[in-house]
Design a protein that fits this description.
With 158 residues, this protein is of the alpha/beta class. It contains 5 helices and 6 strands. The chain has a 4-stranded parallel beta sheet, sandwiched between helices. The longest helix is centred in the middle third of the chain and has 20 residues. The chain is globular. The relative contact order is 0.24. Keywords: Riboflavin biosynthesis, Transferase.
């Protein structure tokens, strides 16, 4: 039987700049995501000079900040980190849905990886669990995805 060709990205340092676009709202959770993402990039050989952190007020503002980064920095990848925690009104649905949709559109428009590490959770407890305790750290996962996608796109000829 003939082997099937497979192509995938690897988790190792890539050329270019990695920009973390971070929402300050819910910083008690988000800062753990930032620490996890930076640590992951550094462990995989990305130098401190290749990393920039851009801070926006909250999840609603993240897509505009990402768009400006994509236009002005031409990064290898953008890692977006934030936290939207459900409250007692429909505000959660609007913010989380629009943020996620806009980030997806930007990635496709610019053809640059936009790793989505924006937590959209029902409770504070879930946010804490996903920022470095029981459920892992979504900042780490977003950094892993960014590295893998940069290397995959390089392999595919981007």
């Amino acid at each position: 039987m003939q082997a099937i060709k497979q192509t995938e990205g690897l988790l190792h340092a890539a050329k270019g700049q990695f920009v973390l676009v971070v929402g300050r709202f819910n910083s008690f959770v988000v800062e753990s995501l930032v620490a996890g993402a930076v640590d992951t990039l550094r462990r995989h050989g990305v130098s401190a000079e290749q990393i920039e952190i851009v801070r926006a007020p909250g999840a609603w503002e993240l897509p505009l900040a990402v768009q400006k980064v994509l236009k002005t920095r031409q990064p290898a990848a953008v890692i977006v980190l934030g936290a939207v925690i459900r409250g007692g009104t429909p505000h959660f649905e609007y913010i989380s849905g629009e943020c996620n949709s806009a980030l997806s559109r930007l990635m496709m428009e610019y053809e640059i990886p936009v790793a989505n590490g924006v937590l959209t959770v029902n409770t504070i407890e879930q946010a804490v669990e996903r920022s470095g305790t029981k459920m892992g750290n979504k900042g780490v996962e977003a950094a892993d995805a960014a590295l893998e996608m940069v290397n995959l796109l390089t392999t595919l000829g981007n």
